[in-house]
Amino acid sequence: MMSSLSSRIEVTRNGSRSVLTACRSVAPLKLLNPAAQGDYCAVVLSSYGGGMVEGDATTLCVRCGEGASLYLGTQAFTKVYKSPNGIPCKQIISGEVKAGGLAVILPDPVVPYSRSIFQQEQTWHLGPDACLVLADGHTAGRMAFGEHFAYTSYRSDITIHTAERPILIERYYSEPGALSPTHTGAFGAYNVVFNIFIAGNSVSFTSLVKSLSQTLTPLLKPSQDSLLLSFASPRPDLFVIRSLAQNVECLLPLYTALRDAIAHPNVLGADPLARKY
Questions:
Q1: CA 216 → CA 221, 229, 248, 251, distances in Å?
Q2: Which of 57, 142, 174, 224 sits a CA distance of 20 to 30 A from 20?
Q3: pLDDT category, 2, cuts 50, 70, 90?
Q4: DSSP label at 34?
Q5: Residues with Cβ within 8 Å of residue 68, at least 6 apart in sequence
Q6: Which DSSP category does 144 fall into?
Q7: Which of 206, 200, 238 is closest to 99 using CA atoms?
Q8: CB-based contact 30:47 (threshold 8 Å)
Q9: What is the pTM of this model?
Q10: What percent of the chain has pLDDT over 90?
Q11: Is 143 left (phi over 0), alpha (psi -120 to 50) or beta?
Q12: Count of alpha carbons within 13 Å of 208, Cβ hemisphere only?
């Protein structure tokens, strides 16, 4: 029987450090709190079953307090197993970054298996001078096993709000059986989609945009056929990076630029992915 409780993360600033002051894991989600390499708080999402099986529904509430810094990542790729009865796997994340807070959400891409159904909804609210870095993406499936866009459907809805208005409404839906993702105008020859949304109005936001604009510009060359990249600021408090890659390894230049930008003293002050990679 599925629990009605939500998993919960709350991070508070204590002196110069950010600490985990509330944490609740509800199966199948498991929350880990490894030692951080800096003054931020690190939380890693894991799973008791190695992935999401048909009917799994996880709900996570994230609260990053005033002046606190949070890194939220995943232990590995999120695997979504097949749904033979047509029941989707669902993930709902509700987040709040309070005044002066910084939340860096960098999960690995989702790997949707053949005949899987995945639905994700993320809603974030930002306070004054807060900053949110949010990555979202998925692969074509288990390509090493011959699965190439063999999932049934994949949906990801992301909304980011400030106190005044929503600044990002991202609606993504892929149903290979209705429209092949390999068509021109969709994935084409690429097998991974990975987007990064940076929102806010703070020193961290300015530092990230400046650093990433400089380091990503050389990657826009047409000769980079293994990685198709674009970035833009559609509004003053939003910076969007979109990428398509032939495989996850081809995302390395983007990951490198992102890690360097996040490690700046005006952001997290350390690279949270150093131990992982």
A1: 10, 8, 17, 12
A2: 57
A3: very low
A4: P
A5: 11, 12, 13, 18, 41, 98, 101, 102
A6: G
A7: 200
A8: yes
A9: 0.94
A10: 83
A11: alpha
A12: 32
